[in-house]
Amino acid sequence: MTDGTAAQQLRTLIKQRVQAIAARDAQYLADVQADDVLAYKVLPPLRLRGSNQVAEQTRAWFDGYAHGPGYEVHDLQIEVDGNVGSTAFLYHVTGTCTRVTRSPCGCEPHPSGNAPTAVGRSCTITNQFLGTP
């Protein structure tokens, strides 16, 4: 696989992530992650282990929105070296929360964010780090 092909796979993965969030498809978002993915978040619980925990938090995040979430990716950066690649990006989340209170990150809990990614025959998210300004 060339670096250009791998970079395109990662662009496609991020595009599909945006589409899955728009469709509120927590199962798709879990399926593209390694079974033992390690995710760090800005809101408790701060660390999740495994795609099942991430899927549970993703469903809870979706349930926090009466409308949305809208999810836009900006400034996508892709790095590829052989069969390993990573992505980093800024994202903008919009929507109407079902709760009165909002965190700086949106409607809690908030499982979306940067997705360093392993590249091979198919892309699998192995680590995920989240942040807010």
From TrEMBL:
Protein name from the UniProt record: SnoaL-like domain-containing protein
Pfam families: SnoaL_3
Lineage of origin: Bacteria, Bacillati, Actinomycetota, Actinomycetes, Micrococcales
Domain SnoaL-like: 11-94
